[in-house]
């Protein structure tokens, strides 16, 4: 008999195959008292399965395991750590079909996007396998000539890693890759909506040879109750968090008590700017990529589309035509391009932001109305004439809604784009090289996509300025977040 009503045999199989307990010290263990919480399928709102609900004591046991494993793990050679990551990279790709299906079931994104995320996630391991063997130091003569300065890089120590639900695998490997490469042990806590991908990764890491205690995973409903004591314990040396700016601010305060190294990848409010000289087809395709990846549930999602007033009508017509042709449905079904939003709260937020914009005078070019029925589906929506004081101009929409606002001058649009507390990414479409560089330099963001709607790449430094975060993940800088620099002075009289 199928243990999961509503799931196919293949779907039930991948859900059943995942260990649903806590991964601590290389063992799968139940949460204290056997507590569990439910994981739901956002396409139906139905329960998929239950996973262990860690208590603060369970969290502490995981951190103790990471602390105990730290000295020996730091002594593993860079080549050994690189080999662990390479093996894990290969296993992720070997199992892409099952892992993608699992991700679609817990998160909702279409299967093709889930497969893309597994490949992207695996790429962080490949990238950091290369970085592990390139950790370098320095040798310098003191200015007075009477000493030598050696600089060495050492692992920061045990890390706490907290990830969001929107990229359930890649946000984990983006942290675990550099942590393992640097020789840091860790406790990772995925979001309660999407714990299964990270639990599946634990088996892969064990199979790849990651030693017991070097990576631990706790799943919990009360994230704050479990993580705050760990942050304040002084046993961990670093926190790396990806999630909302609201929670990131709170965690930064908690980290202050023991002065933890802190990396924060927070929310965004990306401007997407189309100048009058842009290639319009390229800009429309870029807007679809920047808006519709992950159903708009991405920190990098184009949140405010500024289009020159001479082309906004034509741009809006072409964008609405392409957006309305995208098939909405359960992510497991063939041809589906737009899956459900993560949960009821996510759907309600999108609905209220659209209602607010329309009330303030925006016009709906396509979409704008959630379909009745189960699951948290919202149709691809284009709004034009969205005033700059609409609520969605100042909040992450986190849904498939593209709000268009006209502008007339470069100066005006740069000022409008920068008029936000966030600064993660901006997109600029223009064929004028000087303008492209001028605008890219003036935008207060950590990343800029020039004539392209996707910037994420494991080999590039991902991160934001202002209230979008601290630090960079990926690229050559990514590993530095997990390394301390030690200076050794040698007298040479
Ligand atoms: P969230 O509510 O901030 O949650 C993120 C993670 O923090 C989850 O694991 C959550 O656990 C945990 N958490 C919540 N409250 C906590 C607390 N008091 N102490 C410790 N941990 C706590 O964000 P989300 O809704 O999952 O994710 C969406 C946000 O992430 C958006 O703002 C998006 O822009 C941002 N994001 C940023 C990036 C980037 O690289 N800049 C990438 C992806 C997403 P539970 O869910 O189990 O409560």
Structural commentary:
This protein is α/β, with parallel strands linked by helices and 493 residues long. It has two domains: 9-266 and 470-486, Aldehyde Dehydrogenase, Chain A, domain 1 (3-Layer(aba) Sandwich), CATH 3.40.605; 270-457, Aldehyde Dehydrogenase, Chain A, domain 2, CATH 3.40.309.10. The chain is built from 14 helices and 22 strands. The structure holds NADP nicotinamide-adenine-dinucleotide phosphate. NADP nicotinamide-adenine-dinucleotide phosphate binds at residues 162-167, 171, 189, 191-192, 223-224, 227, 242-244, 247, 250-251, 265-268, 299, 396, 424, 464, 469.
Quick synopsis:
The protein has 493 residues and is an alpha/beta fold. It contains 14 helices and 22 strands.
């Amino acid at each position: 008999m199928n243990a999961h009503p509503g799931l196919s045999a293949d779907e039930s199989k991948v859900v059943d195959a995942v260990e649903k307990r806590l991964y601590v010290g290389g063992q799968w263990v139940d949460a204290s008292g056997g507590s569990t919480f439910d994981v739901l399928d956002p396409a139906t709102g139905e329960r998929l399965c239950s996973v262990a609900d860690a208590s603060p004591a369970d969290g502490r046991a995981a951190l103790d395991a990471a602390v105990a494993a730290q000295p020996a793990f730091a002594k593993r050679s860079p080549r050994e750590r690189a080999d662990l990551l390479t093996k894990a990279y290969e296993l992720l790709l070997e199992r892409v079909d099952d892992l993608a299906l699992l991700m679609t079931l817990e998160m909702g994104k279409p299967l093709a996007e889930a497969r893309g995320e597994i490949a992207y996630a695996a790429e962080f391991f490949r990238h950091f396998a290369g970085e592990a063997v390139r950790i370098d130091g320095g040798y310098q003569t003191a200015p007075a000539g009477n000493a030598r300065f050696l600089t060495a890089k050492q692992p920061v120590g045990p890390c706490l890693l907290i990830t969001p639900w929107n990229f359930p695998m890649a946000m984990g490997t983006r942290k675990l890759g550099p942590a393992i490469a640097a020789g840091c042990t860790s406790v990772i806590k995925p979001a309660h909506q999407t714990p299964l991908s990270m639990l599946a990764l634990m088996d892969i890491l064990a199979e790849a040879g990651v030693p017991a205690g070097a990576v631990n995973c706790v799943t919990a409903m009360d994230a704050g109750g479990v993580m705050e004591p760990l942050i304040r314990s002084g046993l961990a040396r670093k926190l790396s968090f990806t999630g909302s700016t609201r929670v990131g601010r709170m965690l930064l305060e908690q980290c202050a008590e023991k002065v933890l190294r802190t990396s924060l990848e927070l929310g965004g409010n990306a401007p997407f700017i189309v100048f009058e000289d842009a290639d319009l087809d390229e800009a429309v395709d870029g807007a679809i990529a920047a808006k519709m990846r992950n159903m708009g549930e991405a920190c990098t999602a184009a949140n405010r589309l500024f289009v020159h007033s001479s082309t906004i009508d034509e741009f809006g017509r072409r964008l609405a035509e392409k957006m309305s042709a995208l098939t909405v449905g359960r992510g497991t079904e063939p041809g589906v391009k737009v899956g459900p939003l993560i949960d009821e709260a996510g759907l309600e937020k999108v609905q209220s932001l659209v209602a607010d914009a329309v009330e303030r005078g925006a016009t709906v070019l396509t979409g704008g109305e959630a379909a009745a029925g189960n699951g948290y589906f919202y149709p691809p929506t284009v709004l034009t004439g969205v005033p700059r004081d609409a609520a969605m101009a100042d909040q992450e929409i986190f849904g498939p809604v593209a709000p268009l606002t006209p502008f007339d001058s470069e100066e005006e649009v740069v000022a409008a784009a920068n008029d936000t507390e966030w600064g993660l990414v901006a997109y600029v479409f223009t064929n004028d090289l000087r303008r492209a560089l001028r605008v890219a330099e003036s935008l207060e963001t950590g990343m800029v996509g020039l004539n392209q709607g996707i910037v994420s790449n494991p080999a590039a430094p991902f991160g934001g300025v202002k209230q979008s975060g601290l630090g960079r993940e990926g690229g050559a800088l990514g590993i530095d977040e997990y390394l301390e620099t030690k200076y050794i002075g040698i007298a040479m009289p």
